[in-house]
Amino acid sequence: QVQLVESGGGAVQAGGSLRVSCVASGRTFSNYAMGWFRQAPGKERESVAAISRSGGSTYYADSVKGRFTISRDNAKNTVYLQMNNLKPEDTAVYHCAARFGIIIATPEYAYWGQGTQVTVSS
After folding, report:
1. Which of 113, 6, 91 is nearest to 43 (CA)?
2. Averaged over 41-55, what is the pLDDT?
3. What is the mean pLDDT of residues 36-47?
4. How many helices (H) and strands (E) does the chain have?
5. pLDDT for 79-90, tens place per residue?
6. How far is CA 30 from CA 24, 33, 73, 89, 104, in A?
7. Distance in Å from the first CA to the final CA of the chain
């Protein structure tokens, strides 16, 4: 089992920045690709970004390219999502997820955190 705990969400005005973090425990973190997903009220969960086990490969949804950066620190068992130039449409609960093996963009991840709320006001 892998346990994931997100933190760092909050409320910010449009154009602002936030960094959300996800700490993993339970298994060897560097064996898992990590992803960030978000879900807004009344909408389906969508992929935001993903990162490979080593951090050498990343994926971004078109809606966040150039604004969000995913990174990981395997020594700290932590994955980050730096979000810049936030927009009201970025408002959602952000979840991190882990899967053993290669990076993918779709939600087929085995382990999920509870999520952290990000609210962007105009």
Report:
1. 91
2. 95
3. 95
4. 0, 11
5. 999 999 999 999
6. 10, 8, 9, 32, 15
7. 40
Contact 68, 48 (CB under 8 A): yes
One DSSP character per residue, 72-85 reads: EETTTTEEEEEE-S
Residue 91 DSSP class: -
pLDDT grade for 105, boundaries at 50, 70 and 90: confident
Sorted by sequence, the CB contacts under 8 Å of residue 2 that are 6+ apart come out as 24, 25, 26, 27, 32, 98, 110, 111
* Alpha carbon 7 to its chain's center: 11
3-state secondary structure of 25: strand
Report d(CA 7, CA 63) in Å as an integer. Answer: 22
How far apart, in whole angstroms, are the C-alpha atoms of residue 47 and residue 49? 6
CA distance 74 to 62: 26
Q: Angle at the Cα of 49 (from 115 to 83), degrees rounded to 5?
A: 75
